[in-house]
């Protein structure tokens, strides 16, 4: 069985074309699956929003919103610049809607960080207590 050079080249071209199509399909599949995972992550990070904070009359006031149809654990803590916990404003499950918490500022001075943690999410707000 002798194969002519022309038939051999045709077979090699066909094999290369099939390989190129397979590689393109693999790349498209990977990109689509990555974009789907990103959209799932973005939705996960938007579960608690409208995180507000203010200091008035020696009180630290915070507020956050949990969207409708969600119920999740939320933790809000105030940490010193060194990382020590100054106060826990929220710890436990919160239902949908707006939630507000407050605590006395006390003798705190300097820079602090207010941290909100929920499922797949961590929001930080840096604050300064001056006397």
Structural features, described:
The chain is α+β, with helices and mostly antiparallel strands. 31% of the residues lie in helices and 47% in strands. The protein has 1 helix and 7 strands, in the order αβββββββ. Strands 4-3-6-7 form a 4-stranded antiparallel beta sheet, with no helix packed on it. Strands 1-2-5 form a 3-stranded antiparallel beta sheet, with no helix packed on it.
Quick tags:
131 residues, Immunoglobulin-like, 2 domains, four-stranded antiparallel beta sheet, three-stranded antiparallel beta sheet, 7 strands, 31% helix
Write the CATH architecture name of the largest domain. Answer: Sandwich
Question: What is the string of helix and strand elements?
Answer: HEEEEEEE
The N- to C-terminal Cα distance equals: 97 Å
What is the total tally of β strands?
A: 7
- The stretches of 5 or more residues where confidence is low (pLDDT under 50) are 37-46
CATH domain class name of the largest domain: Mainly Beta
Radius of gyration: 28 Å
């Amino acid at each position: 069985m002798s194969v002519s050079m022309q038939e051999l080249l045709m077979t090699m071209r066909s094999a290369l074309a099939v390989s190129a199509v397979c590689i393109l399909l693999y790349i498209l599949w990977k990109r689509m699956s990555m974009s789907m995972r990103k959209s799932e992550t973005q939705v996960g990070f938007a579960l608690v929003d409208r995180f507000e904070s203010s200091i008035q009359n020696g009180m630290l006031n915070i507020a956050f919103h949990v969207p409708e149809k969600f119920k999740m654990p939320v933790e809000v803590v105030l940490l010193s610049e060194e990382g020590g916990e100054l106060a826990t404003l929220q710890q436990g499950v919160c239902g949908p809607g707006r939630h507000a918490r407050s605590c006395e500022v006390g003798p705190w001075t300097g820079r602090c960080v207010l941290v909100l943690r929920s499922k797949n999410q961590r929001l930080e707000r840096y604050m300064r207590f001056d006397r």
